[in-house]
Amino acid sequence: MHDTPSRKKRREALKEARSWEAEARRAASLEKIPDEAREAMVEVRQKEADRLKAHAEELAEQARLEDLHVWELIRVKTSQKGTKNYTYWAASWREGGKVRNVYLGSTRRMSQEQAREKARKMKADSLSMKQPRQPGQRASHP
Length: 142
What we know:
This protein is α+β, with helices and mostly antiparallel strands. The chain has two domains: 5-66; 69-126, no CATH class. The chain has three helices and three strands. It has helices at 5-28, 35-66, 112-126; strands spanning 69-79, 82-95, 98-106. The protein has a three-stranded antiparallel β-sheet, with helices on one face.
């Protein structure tokens, strides 16, 4: 697994969730506070920890989609007239124990960002994952 922005955010969310759980345990052990107030403190802290853990799980799926490599591949073709270089986008990611390499398209017809989006969609399809919405993107209804 490679470091992706979502993986870093997930790590931070889990770290914060652990600190909230520790706060909840400390609050539960306080004896000078009345029972109702102590239980309320524990509940608030535990809910925040649970919310952060759920957010971390969402980020794990997103990080899995981001963990792919897109690169420009150059093919040299020789013919009777001479040699010609063709360039296209390719992507790879891990599926199980193997690396899957896919052709994305010509570099003349798409930018690197378009190639990355296409690769994410292909990876989501191959791993049977739903494609996460990008910020500012509207939800599609069937």
